[in-house]
Amino acid sequence: MNGGVAGSIMRQLSGKEEWGYGGGRGSRRWGRGGYGDRSLKHLEGVHRHIGDAGGGMVLKKRVMVVVDHTTRAKHAMMWALTHVANKGDVLTLLHIVSPHNDSHSPPLLADSLGALCKACKPEVEVEALVIQGPKLATVLSQVKKLEASVLVLGQGKPSAFCCLFASSQEDFVEQCINRADCLTLAVRKQSGGLGGYLVSTRWQKNFWLLA
To answer: Domains in the chain, start-ordered, CATH in brackets?
Structure first.
Protein backbone atom coordinates (compact mmCIF):
# COMPACT_ATOMS: atom_id res chain seq x y z
CA MET A 1 0.00 0.00 0.00
CA ASN A 2 1.47 3.37 -0.97
CA GLY A 3 1.94 6.33 1.37
CA GLY A 4 -0.99 8.28 -0.11
CA VAL A 5 -3.50 5.53 0.54
CA ALA A 6 -2.09 4.83 3.99
CA GLY A 7 -2.23 8.54 4.80
CA SER A 8 -5.87 8.66 3.73
CA ILE A 9 -6.69 5.74 6.03
CA MET A 10 -4.96 7.46 8.94
CA ARG A 11 -6.90 10.68 8.38
CA GLN A 12 -10.19 8.80 8.18
CA LEU A 13 -9.55 6.75 11.30
CA SER A 14 -8.38 9.77 13.27
CA GLY A 15 -11.81 11.32 12.93
CA LYS A 16 -10.75 14.04 10.50
CA GLU A 17 -12.85 12.58 7.70
CA GLU A 18 -16.16 10.75 7.54
CA TRP A 19 -15.99 6.96 7.30
CA GLY A 20 -18.69 4.50 6.23
CA TYR A 21 -20.09 2.49 9.15
CA GLY A 22 -20.13 -1.32 8.94
CA GLY A 23 -21.57 -2.98 11.68
CA GLY A 24 14.56 -8.78 32.22
CA ARG A 25 14.14 -7.31 28.40
CA GLY A 26 15.28 -8.37 24.98
CA SER A 27 15.21 -6.68 21.59
CA ARG A 28 15.93 -7.66 18.01
CA ARG A 29 15.97 -5.64 14.80
CA TRP A 30 15.64 -6.65 11.17
CA GLY A 31 16.68 -4.39 8.30
CA ARG A 32 19.37 -1.84 7.78
CA GLY A 33 21.44 -0.26 10.22
CA GLY A 34 1.87 10.98 19.64
CA TYR A 35 -0.56 11.29 18.16
CA GLY A 36 -3.23 11.29 21.00
CA ASP A 37 -4.58 14.78 21.45
CA ARG A 38 -1.75 16.29 19.47
CA SER A 39 -2.19 17.70 16.00
CA LEU A 40 -2.56 15.37 13.04
CA LYS A 41 -0.03 17.50 11.18
CA HIS A 42 2.91 15.42 12.38
CA LEU A 43 1.48 12.15 11.08
CA GLU A 44 0.34 13.69 7.79
CA GLY A 45 3.75 15.30 7.34
CA VAL A 46 5.43 11.95 7.71
CA HIS A 47 3.24 10.47 4.98
CA ARG A 48 3.96 13.40 2.67
CA HIS A 49 7.71 12.89 2.94
CA ILE A 50 7.76 9.12 2.57
CA GLY A 51 8.36 8.06 -1.00
CA ASP A 52 9.20 11.58 -2.11
CA ALA A 53 11.06 11.12 -5.39
CA GLY A 54 12.47 14.63 -5.10
CA GLY A 55 15.17 13.54 -2.67
CA GLY A 56 16.13 15.27 0.53
CA MET A 57 15.54 14.06 4.07
CA VAL A 58 12.96 11.30 4.34
CA LEU A 59 11.04 11.19 7.60
CA LYS A 60 9.76 7.95 9.02
CA LYS A 61 7.23 6.96 11.62
CA ARG A 62 7.20 4.19 14.20
CA VAL A 63 4.24 1.81 14.12
CA MET A 64 3.95 -0.27 17.28
CA VAL A 65 1.97 -3.53 17.43
CA VAL A 66 1.25 -5.50 20.60
CA VAL A 67 1.80 -9.16 19.74
CA ASP A 68 1.26 -12.50 21.46
CA HIS A 69 0.29 -16.06 20.50
CA THR A 70 -3.30 -15.21 19.59
CA THR A 71 -4.70 -15.12 16.08
CA ARG A 72 -6.13 -11.65 16.62
CA ALA A 73 -2.67 -10.29 17.41
CA LYS A 74 -1.23 -11.80 14.24
CA HIS A 75 -4.08 -10.33 12.18
CA ALA A 76 -3.39 -6.90 13.71
CA MET A 77 0.33 -7.23 12.96
CA MET A 78 -0.25 -8.08 9.29
CA TRP A 79 -2.84 -5.30 8.96
CA ALA A 80 -0.39 -2.77 10.40
CA LEU A 81 2.31 -4.01 8.03
CA THR A 82 0.14 -3.75 4.92
CA HIS A 83 -2.07 -0.74 5.77
CA VAL A 84 -0.01 1.55 8.04
CA ALA A 85 3.71 0.94 7.62
CA ASN A 86 5.36 2.46 4.55
CA LYS A 87 8.83 2.23 3.07
CA GLY A 88 11.41 3.41 5.60
CA ASP A 89 9.06 3.18 8.58
CA VAL A 90 9.89 1.22 11.73
CA LEU A 91 7.50 -1.57 12.76
CA THR A 92 7.96 -2.37 16.44
CA LEU A 93 6.53 -5.67 17.65
CA LEU A 94 5.99 -5.43 21.41
CA HIS A 95 5.55 -8.72 23.28
CA ILE A 96 4.83 -8.31 26.98
CA VAL A 97 5.29 -11.26 29.32
CA SER A 98 4.70 -11.83 33.01
CA PRO A 99 7.61 -10.98 35.31
CA HIS A 100 7.44 -14.58 36.53
CA ASN A 101 7.67 -16.12 33.06
CA ASP A 102 10.98 -17.99 32.64
CA SER A 103 10.05 -19.61 29.31
CA HIS A 104 12.16 -19.14 26.18
CA SER A 105 8.98 -19.02 24.09
CA PRO A 106 8.48 -15.19 24.11
CA PRO A 107 11.75 -14.34 22.32
CA LEU A 108 11.20 -17.21 19.89
CA LEU A 109 7.76 -15.85 19.05
CA ALA A 110 9.09 -12.32 18.63
CA ASP A 111 11.89 -13.60 16.39
CA SER A 112 9.55 -15.56 14.14
CA LEU A 113 7.01 -12.76 13.80
CA GLY A 114 9.73 -10.24 13.07
CA ALA A 115 11.25 -12.46 10.40
CA LEU A 116 7.81 -12.98 8.85
CA CYS A 117 7.18 -9.22 8.63
CA LYS A 118 10.60 -8.58 7.12
CA ALA A 119 10.05 -11.30 4.53
CA CYS A 120 6.64 -9.89 3.60
CA LYS A 121 7.76 -6.26 3.35
CA PRO A 122 11.55 -5.86 3.21
CA GLU A 123 11.37 -2.08 2.77
CA VAL A 124 10.01 -1.70 6.32
CA GLU A 125 12.46 -1.85 9.24
CA VAL A 126 11.28 -4.36 11.83
CA GLU A 127 12.24 -4.67 15.47
CA ALA A 128 10.94 -6.97 18.20
CA LEU A 129 10.87 -6.09 21.89
CA VAL A 130 10.22 -8.65 24.63
CA ILE A 131 9.54 -6.91 27.94
CA GLN A 132 8.51 -8.31 31.30
CA GLY A 133 6.01 -6.22 33.23
CA PRO A 134 2.37 -5.23 33.65
CA LYS A 135 0.72 -5.17 30.24
CA LEU A 136 -1.07 -1.81 30.14
CA ALA A 137 1.63 0.17 31.95
CA THR A 138 4.32 -1.32 29.71
CA VAL A 139 2.45 -0.45 26.51
CA LEU A 140 1.82 3.12 27.61
CA SER A 141 5.41 3.64 28.74
CA GLN A 142 6.92 2.15 25.57
CA VAL A 143 4.66 4.26 23.33
CA LYS A 144 5.95 7.36 25.08
CA LYS A 145 9.58 6.24 25.36
CA LEU A 146 9.88 5.21 21.70
CA GLU A 147 7.67 8.08 20.47
CA ALA A 148 5.38 5.79 18.50
CA SER A 149 3.20 7.49 15.90
CA VAL A 150 0.63 4.69 15.71
CA LEU A 151 -0.27 1.84 18.10
CA VAL A 152 -2.12 -1.17 16.65
CA LEU A 153 -3.89 -3.77 18.79
CA GLY A 154 -5.72 -6.98 18.00
CA GLN A 155 -9.38 -6.88 18.93
CA GLY A 156 -11.49 -9.97 19.58
CA LYS A 157 -15.21 -10.44 19.24
CA PRO A 158 -17.18 -8.71 22.01
CA SER A 159 -18.06 -10.98 24.92
CA ALA A 160 -21.57 -12.42 25.02
CA PHE A 161 -22.27 -10.37 28.14
CA CYS A 162 -20.66 -7.16 26.90
CA CYS A 163 -23.71 -5.20 28.00
CA LEU A 164 -22.98 -6.20 31.60
CA PHE A 165 -19.19 -6.29 31.69
CA ALA A 166 -16.17 -6.29 29.42
CA SER A 167 -13.53 -8.99 29.26
CA SER A 168 -10.03 -8.20 30.48
CA GLN A 169 -8.80 -8.02 26.86
CA GLU A 170 -11.59 -5.63 25.87
CA ASP A 171 -10.80 -3.44 28.86
CA PHE A 172 -7.08 -3.48 28.00
CA VAL A 173 -7.78 -2.42 24.41
CA GLU A 174 -10.13 0.35 25.52
CA GLN A 175 -7.62 1.64 28.07
CA CYS A 176 -4.91 1.76 25.39
CA ILE A 177 -7.21 3.59 22.97
CA ASN A 178 -8.09 6.21 25.56
CA ARG A 179 -4.72 6.64 27.27
CA ALA A 180 -1.91 5.98 24.79
CA ASP A 181 -0.05 9.09 23.65
CA CYS A 182 -0.49 8.32 19.95
CA LEU A 183 -3.15 7.36 17.44
CA THR A 184 -4.35 3.93 18.59
CA LEU A 185 -6.18 1.47 16.33
CA ALA A 186 -7.92 -1.72 17.46
CA VAL A 187 -8.30 -4.13 14.56
CA ARG A 188 -10.47 -7.22 14.14
CA LYS A 189 -10.55 -9.33 11.01
CA GLN A 190 -14.06 -10.02 9.80
CA SER A 191 -15.23 -13.63 9.69
CA GLY A 192 -18.13 -15.45 8.09
CA GLY A 193 -17.15 -14.55 4.55
CA LEU A 194 -17.69 -10.80 5.04
CA GLY A 195 -14.04 -9.92 4.50
CA GLY A 196 -12.19 -6.80 5.52
CA TYR A 197 -11.55 -5.50 9.02
CA LEU A 198 -13.41 -3.70 11.78
CA VAL A 199 -11.28 -0.85 13.13
CA SER A 200 -11.90 1.16 16.30
CA THR A 201 -10.25 4.39 17.47
CA ARG A 202 -10.90 6.90 20.22
CA TRP A 203 -13.42 8.63 17.99
CA GLN A 204 -14.97 5.85 15.89
CA LYS A 205 -15.94 2.28 16.77
CA ASN A 206 -16.14 -0.82 14.57
CA PHE A 207 -15.81 0.86 11.20
CA TRP A 208 -15.56 -1.54 8.32
CA LEU A 209 -12.50 -1.38 6.11
CA LEU A 210 -12.94 -3.62 3.09
CA ALA A 211 -9.25 -4.04 2.22
So the answer is: 59-157+165-209 (3.40.50.620)
